[in-house]
Amino acid sequence: MSHDNGATEALPESYFQMDAARWTAGRNMLMFAALVSIALCAFGYWQNPTRFNQSYIVAFGFCAATGLGAFFFVAVQFLSGAAWSVTVRRIMENIMITLPFCAILFIPIAFGLKDIYSWTNRATVMASEALRYKANYITENAFVMRAYIYFALWSIWIFSICYQSVKQDKEKSIRQMHICSRWSAPGLLLAVAVGTLASYDWLMSIEPKWYSTIFGLYILSGGAWTFFAIVTLVAMGFRRAGIMTKAITMEHMHDLGKWMFVMTAFYTYIAFAQYLLIWYANLPEETIWYRHRIAGGWFWIAISMPFIRFVIPFFTLLCRPAKRSLTVLGLMAVWAIVVEYIDMYWIAMPAFYPGGPQIHWLDFATLAATVSTCGLVFWGRFKKHKMAPVGDLRFEQSLQFENM
Predict the structure, then answer these.
(1) Quick check: is 7 in a domain?
(2) Strand (E) or helix (H) holding 197
(3) Alpha-carbon distance 64 to 194, whole Å?
(4) How far is CA 204 from CA 89, 105, 154, 348, in A?
(5) How many CB atoms lie within 10 A of CB 342?
(6) Per the domain annotation, does 99 fall within a domain?
(7) How many CA within 13 A on the CB side of residue 193?
(8) How crowded is residue 232: how many other Cβ atoms within 10 Å of its Cβ?
(9) Could you give the residue ranges of the DSSP H alpha helices within 48-139?
(10) Is pLDDT larger for residue 3 or for residue 68?
(11) How many domains are contained in the chain?
(12) Is residue 3 part of a domain?
């Protein structure tokens, strides 16, 4: 529950415009990271293209899942008319808008399909009765075409929502709120339904004989958890740098902690449901996926998942004081991001290295390249646009927000 704590001192709109020198410093840092990591990726591709593509699909999946989680929850904020999140919603929107730019990050995958997906070998497909039924679906042209249809649909909705949001900074009209809400309703369907199809194509089809109808929610829940972790870290970074300290209060940090706690529980529910259904049915074509992920060195990651994904973050964030401690929130946010990457690695890599993890420097280079590129997109929007949606009619209510 929450209530408004009365009137607050009016803040000028210039308070929510990032200083040009600070923006430039952030841009330069991200640009340097992007250039160095992309150069390393280029060298790695020249040296070992197969390993580059295998590492890259993990990094790409990590960024795309995060953007997808952002899309879903920004739409939820507009549809629910949430007031608490308004002061941090521009951060959320800027994370969301990285998803359409993942279409550019998809290009290396389109050219490296043969190193990632066994179904690109048509002899393998026709030799398997299970895959022959999917032969017309899992073709290289259809795969790439579907990917860009997904990105086109997401882009239309995401750019439309972001356009109306920044337009409201000047218009200060309820009309933009209504338009964003109307876009957000079908946007939820696109996030879940199209996100599920994308997760089937990009990650599940790495092992094309395996299937799980709940896999899309598994990926979405992990991405949403990472999304809230990033929002938390950015909000903390802003506060530490003296940015929007009067707008992003401990009350907002408390609610972000609640959301990280909720996503911990929701992810665990989805992951356990998937495991339980497959274990109960005990069908070889379904259980094979888990058997691959408990073989050799992968066993130690599999056995640690309930602890690093649920037990540690759930019980750490369970009590109210923990969700109001910036130290705890920061640690748990970093924990969530690291564990999400480990999970994504555990999803993809056993198909390539069944004996156990084979850590390679390209794993880190590809992750740095994709994350820094998305970071540039995220940071770039702070140059022209306000750091908070000051035109939202619930903005003052968000400034006064207080947990009870």
Answers:
(1) no
(2) helix 195-202
(3) 12
(4) 32, 19, 20, 8
(5) 17
(6) yes
(7) 7
(8) 26
(9) 49-80, 86-96, 98-105, 107-111, 113-116, 122-127, 129-132
(10) 68
(11) 1
(12) no
pLDDT (tens digit, 9 = 90+) per residue, 62-105?
A: 999 999 999 999 999 999 999 999 999 999 999 999 999 999 99
**DSSP code for 192:** I
Q: How far apart, in Å, are the Cα atoms of 365 and each of 43, 114, 359?
A: 10, 21, 12
Contact partners, residue 206, CB within 8 Å, separation at least 6: 57, 116, 117, 118, 348, 351
How far apart, in whole angstroms, are the C-alpha atoms of residue 248 and residue 264?
A: 23
H-run or E-run covering 348: helix 326-348
Residue 9 binned pLDDT confidence (cut-offs 50, 70, 90): low
- Confirm if 143 and 113 have CB atoms less than 8 A apart: yes
Backbone torsion region of residue 204, taken as left when φ is above 0, otherwise alpha when ψ lies between -120 and 50, otherwise beta: alpha
Residue 340 in any domain: the answer is: yes
Residues 6+ apart with CB under 8 A from 186: 157
Give the residue carrying structure tokens 């599999």. Answer: 302
CA–CA separation, 93 and 65 (whole Å):
15
Mean pLDDT in the chain? 94
Q: What are phi and psi of 294, to 5 degrees?
A: -120, 10
C-alpha span between 37 and 373 (Å, rounded): 10
Residue 272's domain spans which residues? 16-385
The DSSP letter of residue 401 is: E
d(CA 66, CA 80): 21
- Predicted local confidence at residue 309, as pLDDT: 96
Q: How confident is the model over 138-182, as pLDDT tens digits?
A: 999 999 999 999 999 999 999 999 999 999 999 989 999 999 999
Per-residue 3-state assignment (H helix, E strand, C coil) for 282-342: CCHHHHHHHHHCCCCCHHHHHHHHHHHHHHHHHHHCCCHHHHCCHHHHHHHHHHHHHHHHH
How does residue 316 score in pLDDT terms, banded at 50, 70 and 90? Answer: very high
Contact 293/302 with Cβ under 8 angstroms?
A: yes
Q: How far is CA 179 from CA 100, 164, 317, 386, in A?
A: 20, 7, 36, 20
Q: Could you tell me the two tokens for 244?
A: 């929007």
Whole-model pTM?
Answer: 0.95
